[in-house]
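From the methods appendix. Each design record in this collection lists the tokenized structure first, followed by the designed amino acid sequence. Records were kept in a plain field format so they could be parsed without special tools. The example shown here is representative of the layout used throughout.

RECORD:
FOLD TOKENS (626 positions):
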């Protein structure tokens, strides 16, 4: 979603801000803007569309020179993506100075605050909730930006990550957060603030994060203010709460490699992340499989192992792709650990007054660890007495910090908006978790060993499926003109069908539905006409014959069958128009391989239709609003 980059330090800021904004482009946005302080005046540029449009605009205006600036990519929530609604937003102080603000999140009481500020003479020029924040800081400004921000935030309800500056204090950046992520990079003579580590790592790996309701004041300026052009710089920061109580934040090392967030030889991040799945899986599984002892090692869960064994029920929750991984987790936990489990959309769970029985454990599944609905559902369940576990990729994210324990995916940063390697990582971790509990309850060593063997081979299995990319592309080419597709599967492969359909629609804009193969007869079969592509996940297993019957039903109505089938299965050849092969693995592990061809189907369809795969329309990478 929206992205923030801000900088104060000894370098010229505009190129750094543009570079940072470009690193955040993957999060999804529809307009962008930046502000700097030059000759004690705030200069602002805003544009709809891409960051490059903003860059050209600034260049046409003769470039912006400064050592302090704030910048933003906006994903519209309140008001359409117009220039007027793009950030930064400003407010005028009583002393005639200008405050500029960039903001991620939502100010919930903006209507009341707008009324209050309008009565005090502030004139609003946008339809955003953010402008109220700029005007409120300006209203409360009495010569100290940090104090004004603290006072303003005490009046605000909602979520925010903000960076604020004032032309009266040209060496000071103030930032704060509640709910939305924000990270502060500590350079030698500078500070860089961003909503995402990818915009920080090129500058420094030394970072601090803020907790909710905390504020950081970052100052950087020449030691000798009389010769600002040269000489050494002095930097200083302090962190407080919005009630102005001093807090200490540890400086941490950011574990992120620049290479991981660059395209390298690939045309798109999505393809890079699909193709690198053998490696990301290796990282996800590293150290977690102990063949000698025939056990799963999940260090993060050790302190809670007794609670896990006593668990009466698991509630898995997430949104989108993470929800689909959670659905597979539900099957895994019931099947391998024999503990009742259900997976629910976080957005539904939190508002339906859920009953949480004693011994319930909620598992939040999330790549970003910042999804607002998932976070809210976890908080709701915790409040009602559940223990909370996180299955999260982003280290240090809000969900990972608010849970009692968890298992990181360790698949590396996911930049592609369409989630691929994170899904496989989530399912792999949930498989490990089910085995971890199952082994302690009743699973025999022999059964556990079979799974562990196949899990160890998983990176190779996935690599083999990926070799079919050209074959998959050729198949997609034959059907890509069709506007409606169906994805069908049973058992473990039913959530895979949901995921295949989601991937296709979100980047190729083809309408696709996923459902249990048996459900088709209860209505959706009416959709099938001559040539409609129907993707069956038809791997060998307990429901294989039933899937074949469903395939026959579709064929009889002229549908084109695209089958994901097990290597060596010759029977399927009679029924399918195209076949993508996956290795023979235990049924509970099939999603880990059967989803791979579907990721490639979606990728190739989007490219063949000429879409910008890494910037799908209307989508944001991390949905931090409800
Ligand atoms: C789809 C996709 C989304 C996310 C969902 C949850 O490709 O990426 O559906 O899965 O927004 O995001 P996280 O996993 O960050 O909680």
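DESIGN:
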């Amino acid at each position: 979603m929206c992205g923030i980059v801000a900088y104060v330090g000894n370098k010229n800021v505009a190129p750094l801000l543009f570079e940072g904004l470009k690193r955040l482009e993957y999060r999804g946005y529809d307009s962008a803007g930046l502000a700097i302080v030059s000759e004690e005046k705030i200069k602002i540029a805003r544009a709809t569309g891409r960051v490059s449009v903003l860059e050209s605009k600034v260049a046409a205006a003769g470039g912006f020179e400064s050592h302090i600036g704030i910048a933003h990519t906006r994903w519209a929530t309140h008001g359409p993506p117009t220039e007027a609604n793009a950030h930064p937003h400003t407010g005028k102080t009583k002393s005639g100075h200008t405050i500029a603000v960039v903001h991620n999140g939502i100010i919930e009481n903006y209507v009341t605050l707008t009324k209050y500020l309008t009565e005090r003479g502030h004139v609003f020029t946008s339809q955003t909730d953010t402008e109220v924040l700029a005007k409120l800081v300006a209203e409360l400004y009495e010569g100290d930006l940090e104090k004004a921000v603290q006072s303003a935030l005490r009046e605000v309800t909602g979520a925010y990550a903000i960076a604020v500056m004032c032309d009266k204090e040209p060496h000071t950046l103030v930032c704060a957060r509640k709910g939305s992520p924000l990270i502060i990079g500590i350079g030698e003579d500078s500070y860089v603030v961003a909503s995402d580590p990818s915009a920080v790592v090129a500058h420094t790996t030394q970072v601090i994060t803020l907790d909710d309701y905390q504020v950081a004041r970052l100052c950087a300026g020449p030691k000798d203010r009389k010769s600002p052009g040269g000489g050494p710089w002095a930097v200083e920061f302090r962190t407080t709460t919005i009630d102005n109580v001093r807090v200490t934040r540890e400086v941490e090392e950011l574990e992120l490699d620049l290479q991981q967030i660059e395209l390298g030889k690939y045309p798109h991040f999505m393809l890079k992340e699909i193709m690198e799945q053998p490696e990301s899986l290796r990282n996800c599984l590293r150290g977690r499989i102990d063949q000698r002892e025939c056990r799963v090692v999940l260090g993060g869960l050790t302190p809670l192992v007794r609670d896990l064994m006593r668990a009466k029920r698991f509630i898995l929750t997430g949104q989108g792709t993470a929800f689909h991984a959670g659905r597979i987790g539900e099957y895994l936990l019931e099947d391998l650990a024999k503990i009742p489990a259900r997976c629910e959309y976080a957005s539904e769970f939190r508002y339906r007054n859920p009953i949480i029985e004693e011994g319930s454990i909620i598992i939040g599944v999330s790549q970003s660890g910042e999804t607002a609905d998932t976070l809210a559902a976890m908080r709701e369940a915790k409040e009602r007495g559940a223990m909370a576990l996180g299955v999260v990729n982003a280290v240090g994210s809000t969900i990972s910090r608010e849970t009692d324990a968890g298992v990181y995916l360790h698949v590396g940063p996911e930049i592609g908006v369409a989630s691929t390697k994170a899904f496989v990582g989530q399912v792999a971790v949930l498989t490990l978790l089910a085995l971890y509990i199952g082994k302690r309850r009743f699973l025999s060593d022999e059964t556990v060993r079979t799974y562990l063997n196949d899990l160890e081979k998983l990176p190779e299995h996935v690599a083999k499926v990926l070799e079919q990319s050209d074959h998959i592309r050729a198949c997609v080419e034959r059907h890509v003109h069709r506007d409606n597709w169906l994805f069908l599967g049973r058992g473990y492969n039913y959530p895979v069908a949901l995921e295949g359909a989601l991937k296709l629609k979100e980047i190729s804009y083809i309408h696709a539905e996923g459902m249990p193969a048996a459900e088709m007869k209860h209505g959706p079969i009416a959709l099938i006409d001559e040539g409609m592509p129907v993707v069956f996940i038809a791997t060998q297993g307990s429901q294989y014959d039933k899937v074949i019957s469903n395939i026959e039903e579709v064929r009889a109505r002229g549908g084109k069958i695209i089958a994901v089938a097990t290597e060596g299965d010759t029977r399927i050849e009679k029924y399918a128009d195209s076949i993508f092969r996956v290795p023979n693995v235990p049924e509970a592990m099939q999603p880990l391989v059967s989803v791979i061809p579907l990721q490639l189907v979606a990728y190739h369809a989007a490219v063949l239709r000429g879409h910008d795969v890494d910037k799908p329309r209307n989508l944001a990478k991390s949905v931090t609003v409800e």
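APPENDIX NOTE: The first strand starts at residue 3 and ends at 9.
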